[in-house]
Amino acid sequence: MADDALTPTAAQNETRIEFPDNRLLAELCGEFDRNLTTIETDQSLQIVRRGNLLILVGDTSACMQTASILQSLYVRLEQGRNVLPADVAAELRMNVISSDVIKTDKQMEMFRGGPVEIKTRKKLVEPRTAAQKAYVQALLKNELSFGIGPAGTGKTYLAVAVAVSMFITGRVDKIILSRPAVEAGERLGFLPGDMKEKVDPYMQPLYDALNDFLPAKQMAKLMDDKAIEIAPLAFMRGRTLANAFVVLDEAQNATSMQMKMFLTRLGEGSRMVITGDRTQIDLPRGVQSGLADAERLLGAIPKISFNYFTSKDVVRHPLVAAIIDAYEADMS
């Protein structure tokens, strides 16, 4: 990317976009024009900045698509929202126009219908793909929701964000986060310490998510007061969970009996979210996953939502999506 004049070839198009606010344009371009470089690489064209103009040189369809991406990001800035590298990546995903796009026109229209924002104590959280937006809307609408898909698609992160948002606005009285205490293909032996010290390593991803949304001191106090609980799935037996936001993470590692036990804990005024990845089952050979049973048995029940994610929804490092695709291709 340079400020030198570019001469389009016969097969190329030159598109000029004018932006009224140079300060916002600088934010759009990013530090050292990092955002523009990302878009250039993804769209296979050149972008030249000249004053308050961005000049796009490349294939006609790529220029049209890139213009739409840049204008959408600029609108974010006009609304007082940030444009971070993750926001650029999300906009690129949402503007892909090719035969392998699995999102329907209805989903795309829904995504463009306006931002969905989750307010927590530490940050404002936004879904970054159409599937994530549909998932968040389902969490807000339904008392029982399932989020199913590969790692890195935001299933647990968004569920915990919604839980914190509902808690701080008084819609629920407590947050309960749970996971099956199942080792991921390793024999770790007996862990030292009391019960909390034994199970905490299994629960660490849930602590990590909470730390993103709540100040450390407030989180510690809420846990001391039992307003936030993080516990293994086995500890749910015999309880009725009322006026709570309950999340079961890594549900593919719950047995059929454990899943039934957990689902029947749902009490008045509560919401329950079950997240899992069917490709990462760590149960002993021959033991049926409770997540698969729940999909089969509950899919037709009204007011229970099932939301599915693919590698297109991965919001971690771009290599994660490529890794997931490679493993899925090998299994097919």
Tell me how many strands there are.
11
Unreliably modeled segments:
97-112, 184-189
Adjacency order of strands in the biggest sheet? 8-7-9-10-6-11
The number of helical elements comes to 12
Could you please describe the fold and organization of this structure?
The protein is of the alpha/beta class and 332 residues long. The chain is 42% helix and 16% strand. The protein contains twelve helices and eleven strands. The strands form three sheets. Strands 8-7-9-10-6-11 form a six-stranded parallel β-sheet, with helices on both faces. A hairpin with a 4-residue loop joins strand 4 and strand 5. Helix 1 crosses helix 3, helix 2 runs parallel beside helix 4 and helix 5 crosses helix 6. The longest helix is centred in the first third of the chain and has 19 residues. The radius of gyration is 23 Å and the shape is elongated. About 7% of the residues have low confidence.
From the structure above, extract its key features.
single chain; 332 residues; alpha/beta; three-stranded antiparallel beta sheet; 11 strands
Topology:
Layout: E1 13-18, H1 22-29, H2 34-43, E2 46-50, E3 53-58, H3 60-78, H4 85-94, H5 105-111, E4 118-119, E5 124-125, H6 130-141, E6 144-148, H7 155-168, E7 174-179, H8 195-213, H9 216-224, E8 228-232, E9 244-248, H10 256-263, E10 271-276, H11 290-298, E11 304-308, H12 318-331
Helix pairs in contact: 1-3, 2-4, 5-6, 6-7, 7-8, 10-11
